[in-house]
Amino acid sequence: MKKLLFVALLVCGVSFSATAQEHNTLTKKERKAGWQLLWNGEDLTGWKSNSEKGDMNKGWKAVDGELIIMARSGAGDIITEKRYHDFELSIDFKITEGANSGIKYFIGENGSVGCEFQILDDNNHPDAKLGVNGNRKLASLYDLIPAPVDKGFRGGFFNTAHIKVNGNHVEHWLNHVKVLEYDRNNQMWDALVNYSKYKVWPGFGNAEEGHILLQDHGDEVWFKNIKIKVLP
What we know:
The chain has three helices and 13 strands; from the N terminus they run H-H-E-E-E-E-E-E-E-E-E-E-E-H-E-E. The chain is mainly beta. The strands form two sheets. Strands 1, 3, 4, 6, 9, 10, 11 and 13 form an eight-stranded antiparallel sheet that branches.
């Protein structure tokens, strides 16, 4: 049966490599381009709790090459031990029904806030109906800039979040398609922040560098292939 399937794929013109890339690894091409793994696929080396009250070992688990935040664990958010300024970040994620999470960047120490690539089940989580013009939905810059309604999300499967930061210019990509971009540290950015929930944080989003954060919002979410390319 496997041989017949292989022949059928060839007849249909489907191409594939003889050996698929293992998860949580880098190809020679990626290493040459400067990509680094942010998660080793085995434990929480390189990560720490985002607050003194958090205990990442209570709910963040490495299972079969996937980093899982368990539902209602109370573990809290985790952040990278290192801080980053200009970078490209790529993370595969999969959400459970009704789940809420996020990937944040420009994070300071001890529970500080930062810009967020929203991870959300738009169809089943009430937060999707809040905010302005859908700016709390999946792939949006949370509470600030909405992602398009038609954004190629695959429910029930892993999707790829990609964040590019080059100076003050930032882009959000979902499954290799750019969904939004913005510039910070200017008058327009400050006006946008002042119209959001972040207006109470002076200078929000304008930090030169910060940690990268994976959010524990009380729902089960999976992450893998977490990697970063630091830009010169």
